[in-house]
Amino acid sequence: MTQKKGSLVCVGTGMQLAGQITVLAKSYIESADIVFTLVPEAYTERWLKKLNGDVRSLQGYYAQEGEVKNRRNTYDEMVTAILTEVRNGQNVVCALYGHPGVFACVSHLAIEQAKEEGYNAQMLPGVSAEACLWADLGIDPGSCGHQSYEASQFMFFEHKPDPSTHLLLWQIGIAGEHTLTQFNTCSDKLQVLVEHLLQWYPVDHKVVLYEAASLPTQAPRIERISLSLLPQAQLSGITTLLIPPSQTLTYNEAVLTKLGITAGDLG
Length: 267
Ligand SMILES: C[S@@+](CC[C@H](N)C(=O)[O-])C[C@H]1O[C@@H](n2cnc3c(N)ncnc32)[C@H](O)[C@@H]1O
Hints:
By secondary structure, this protein is an alpha/beta fold. The chain is built from eight helices and ten strands. The strands form two sheets. A five-stranded parallel sheet has the order 3-2-4-1-5, with helices on both faces. Strand 6, helix 6 (151-156) and strand 7 (166-170) form a beta-alpha-beta unit. Helix 3 (71-87) packs across helix 4 (105-116).
């Protein structure tokens, strides 16, 4: 079967202007017929426009001033815009900030749809907020493991954090927002989250509000506060919450016994 004309490549631009994109992602952007993009600030969009003459922002699909719009509709419309051009036989790139497939559904939905219709479609990885967080905070997540959840999903479902690992809560700025129409949370919802977390963490446990820098001239936001103060904290659409471990790792005696070793053998 001959491959249909038209293709889709979803790439990440990284978190910081121009410097965190891979060579491969940049070359796809340069050679694409059309580049759809969703990046959080104007500098990166302007930079993309220097790389390719047909860059189209997806930003306009979000609710505009005074409009109430479910984000599911927004994402469907973005996917339709991308797929329309793929079906027109264009080689389309979708350039999203960070990693295009980390806490970002549009790329996954568009690739799935394009493949289903018989087009070539793939995703290239990018530098995510999480990758920047480990670097800026000097933490190796492998030292004791980590868990990562979308903050609202963490609240709505029976997720169990392990207090001996790092816990990341993404989209903390819209924690508990169930209507998919608002872009903020409130102190009452954050208080519910804090009370939920108190099952596993002490009230004065220090948590980190993290925001990676988007320009090379900026410093990241790394603000340590007590868990109890989260409801009063200043949060935005780019804040990620890191909850460091409150307990040390404990040995799994049952598995050690099966392996014929003891904790002392582990050094
Ligand atoms: C829709 S997700 C997009 C994540 C993105 N695809 C990535 O690879 O990092 C948005 C969430 O990512 C995190 N995020 C986005 N920008 C950030 C930044 N500059 N610093 C820290 N976290 C950020 C926040 O948790 C935010 O609510």
